[in-house]
Amino acid sequence: MFLIVEFLKGNNVIRIKYSLKIIALTLTFSTLFTGHVLSQTRISGQLKDTKNQPLPYASVSIENTIDGTTTDSLGQFSFKTREMGKHVLIGSYIGYETKKDTLYITKGNLVHNMVIREKPLTIREVVVTAGAFEANDDPKVAILKPLDIYTNAGAGGDIAGAIRTLPGAQAQTDQTGLFVRGGDASESNFIIDGMVVQNPFSSNVPGVSQRSRFMPFQFKGISFSSGGYSVRYGQALSSILELNTMDLSEKTTLNFSAGVAGVALSGIERWKKSSVEITGHYDNLSPFLKLATPNFHFFEVPTGGGVSGNYVLAASNKDLLKIFLKYDRSTSGIDVPNPYSNDIIHYPNAGDSIIGFGLKNSNLYFNSSYRHSFDNLILRTSASASNNKDNINWGTVEGSNFDWRVQWRGEALYTINDRLNILAGSELQRYQFNQSFSTFSSGFNEFIAAGYTELEWKPFRWLAFKPGLRVEHSNLLNKNNLGPRLALAIGTGNYSQVSLAGGLFYENPDKKYLFSGYRPGFQNAVHYIANYQWIRNDRTFRIETYYKSYNQLVFENLGNLVKFDANLYRFIPPGENITNTGTGYAQGLEIFWRDKATIPNLDYWISYSYIDTKRLYQNFRKSVTPSFVSNNNLNVLVKYFIEPLQVNVGASYVYASGRPFYNPDFLLRKAPDYNNLSFNMSYLTTLGKVFAVVYMGIDNVLNLKNVYGYQFSPDGTSHNIVPALYRTIYVGFTISLSQFKKEEL
Amino acid sequence: MKKLTILLIAGCILLAIPVGSQEIKIDTINSQSDSSQQFKEDLKAGVNDFDSAANLNECVSAANHLVLIANKYSEEWAANYYACYSLTILSYIEKDGKKRDEYLDQAEVFLDKAVSEYKTDYDELFVLKAIHASARLAVQPAMRYKKYGDLFNENLEKAKSLQPNNPRIYYLKGNSVFYTPKMFGGGAKIALPEYEKAALLFSSESKDDVFKPYWGEKQNEEMISKCKAEI
Q1: Is residue A120 part of a domain?
Q2: Are residues A377 and A449 in the same domain?
Q3: Of A78, A138, A363, B166, which alpha carbon lies 20 to 30 A from A295's?
């Protein structure tokens, strides 16, 4: 009967009228033939793939009908149809190309076997990754998650601490900041929402590495570039650490946390299109110091406090406004080795080998960014302002640091088509540094204007080019620079790719020269980076090699008569021959392996960096490996979630080969190797509407008496540079209350 | 006259078709309501097969059949609705992540088609969007929870604003809570009230019109006993 209906389709009304008569007729006839056997056609056969394997659960049907079936465990199918004549038989299965075979259906049984082909693997679109480590929620580029930073046993909840466990960064240091691929701390820039943070770390204390001022959970994405970074940034010879603040908070919550180092209270209010987060904290290290035996005497226990606020408005899905404001104060007093023991001009009591270093700091940071999307165009603008003040007592001598910065950036990203987009933008930075020490005071002002453009072109899914150019003008140096950059990525398989990156990077001379009135030109570095990356099912392998040449580094040509002064806080006297004649190089190999898949609930990674670097710069006498470089750095990190107990445990092991130190005659002495084993655990639980985390951690579990290096006195004697504390223990908890009603409080 | 002869021959071929077969009904021939009656019967049979599937084989087979129905009756929102629904459920059964996504890619085509054919807002379509989003989430929970978790909640909220008495809203909500780790505010104890609310609404829902989706009661009952076993 279907056949008749099909047959009538396309004929005109008159024929339908005829056919109705015929049908009436045939129905009369057909009653005479009741029980006739030859009624339907049975179509049967087997469905196989190109490797001759039968495919079960595949669908076989006649096109445009519901006549069909599903293959059995042997790939066999069999179904009946009333269709006759020319038809299309469709075989389809998930992951396979749909096969269409034309059939002539006649009476009787029909056997038809089909072969279907597996869909070709689609080559993943390549992403330029050379030099960059991403921690965010974009699976295409992320190697880490923001949470990984927080739960890293070796990091102690510090962003910079976590970055130091990645390839390219020096694992440990007695100094503040990030030391990347042979560069000193001043060669790394810390960026929040596109803006340079002038004081990302708590103020410097000689010999004590300081934590970053920002907490990891304030950021949704962290990108660490150990070289070859984008034209959006400049003024960094080595590296960029880029952080992006959170978008709209998910829900209204109230959080309280307390630990051996302080307490914090934060509240988040979420409305339909906006959210506000307010946090207040008070820090006091006395309980923490009581749990350990400090190597230094704290004559004033570090205390501090602050507030921060965060406002996000997503007025539509095309707009996003973020405002971030933070104010902190802190006080501390610690006895440190006197860095000025051979500078009697600035520090008269040269005999004081240990001096009391008292610090009072206040820091204000403001950042805002706005993004608007049009059809093919995204406009972004951001502005920041910050202000930092340190009042210092160097033993009996008073000093101070005062600096501020304002910055603006505007940029447009235009998408020409899916394969091509272009970024163009400009930024303005204005900052001032002032310092005083005893009766000496100095300062300088800088205004930097920069423009940049970058093209991203993907001619194929497996090939991407990213050429760019950055132009900068420094008002202070009265010089311009032109920095070309190029990155490219080539897909080498479904899960792997090779990336290359390179470019020319500039940076102003170190502040100590600018304070003393010297105005040498820009220093520069040329980066060449090659990287191979393989990511599949929660396993990541990455190997990267690089060569960097440093040019026009600032060099004090002091001659051989003046003793080498290793003091990082030294003052540059006037009248020196300061030129841009310093040079250097760095080359190395880095390997990263992470596996989250092999053992359920176990996540581990291994990061190894080898570096060979030498430079002649500042007050060096010859080209040597700087004292902030360990040639070999190894980090092993393990995390395991004990599901039935809801407990996370983690451990980290850090190894760094001994660093070189130079005595006043610039003779080398090597510090011993550094080893550190840390452990942490956290317990997560809910009590009604309260979500709680209890955590504890031990840094340097084995209580190893690590020696970072040596502090040389002018007479050539030295003493060991040691950490402020060997084994440390911290404990604390966080409770979070969400979806509550006000009256429940 | 020649054409009439052809028609006559065609009519004779019909003699080969058994009269006892149920497809032959005089009233299926000339009116549109009859072909839609046929569609409704095909769909109802398909949905029943899917609902009563006792093993994976039957389940895949019933889903394949619903896909055929949706391909044939592509302008019927309900055909697309059930094709999407069955493929989404299949994605949960499949173990290979890539295949799960392929099922969901297929399901999404039917989902979009169902939405565009229905033309106005309909709570069941938002429920379908929600279950599709939660299936996407289930493929890679850690990576997708943000995007698809939001999508899931959003669509359930929309469904709720249109028809707060749709039991599937609470059934799906219950599932989402049940499979959220206890430490993040999930678990059987918190999920149970949602399932119980769904059960109450399911009990007063009529289950005879395939154009008014009624799936979920059996699964909801299973979840209730699962919750009670865990508490």
Answers
A1: no
A2: yes
A3: A363
Question: Considering A54, A80, A115, which residue would you say is the last residue of a domain?
Answer: A115
Model confidence at A186: pLDDT above 60: yes
Q: Is residue A125 part of a domain?
A: no
Q: Verify that A107 and A153 share a domain, yes or no.
A: no
Residue A215: pLDDT over 90: no
**In chain A, what's the furthest Cα-to-Cα distance?**
127
The pLDDT score that the predictor gives to residue B22 is 39
**Gap between the Cα atoms of A153 and A698, Å rounded:** 9
User: Does residue A155 belong to any structural domain of this protein?
Assistant: yes
The domain of A50 spans: 2-92+100-115
Q: Which residues of A153-184 are buried (b: 16+ CB within 10 A; e: fewer)?
A: bbbbbbbbbbbbbbbbbbbbbbbbbbbbbbbb
Residues whose CB is less than 8 angstroms from the CB of residue A229 and which lie 6 or more positions away in sequence, other chains included: A131, A132, A236, A239, A240, A485, A505
Selected for mutation to probe chain A from B29, B136, B173 (highest A CB count within 10 Å) is B29
* A127 neighbors A143 (Cβ within 8 angstroms): no
Question: Do residue A289 and residue A400 come from a single domain?
Answer: yes
Cα B69-B73-B74 angle, rounded to 5 deg: 105
Q: Which of B41, B68, B150, B184 to mutate to test the interface with A (most CBs of A within 10 A)?
A: B68
Say if A124 falls within a structural domain.
Answer: no
Domain co-membership, A168 together with A64: no
| Terminal-residue alpha carbon distance, chain A | 73
| Residue A448 CB partners (closer than 8 Å, separation 6+) | A234, A235, A428, A429, A430, A472, A473, A474, A475
Cα–Cα distance between A680 and A247 in angstroms, integer?
Answer: 29
**Nearest C-alpha of chain B: how many angstroms from A30?**
5
> Cβ neighbours of residue A162 under 8 Å, at least 6 residues apart?
A148, A149, A150, A152, A154, A155, A216
At residue A542, the pLDDT reads: 93
Q: Read off the CATH number of the domain in which A106 is found.
A: 2.60.40.10
Interchain contact A125–B (C-beta under 8 A): no
Q: How high is the pLDDT of residue A620?
A: 93
pLDDT at B93 over 60: yes
Range with top average pLDDT, A163-167, A225-229, A329-333, A729-733: A329-333
- A495: domain CATH number is 2.40.170.20
Question: What is the distance between the alpha carbons of residues A72 and A91, in angstroms, rounded to a whole number?
Answer: 13
Query: Last residue of some domain: A115, A146, A164?
Result: A115
Rounded-to-integer distance, Cα A352 and Cα A716, Å = 16
CB contact under 8 A, B16 and A36: yes
Q: Are A77 and A8 in contact (CB under 8 A)?
A: no
Inter-chain residue contact B16 with A34, CB threshold 8 Å: no
Average per-residue pLDDT in chain A?
87
Task: Look at chain A and report how many structural domains it folds into.
Answer: 2
Cβ within 8 Å of residue B24, ≥6 positions away: A1, A27, B17
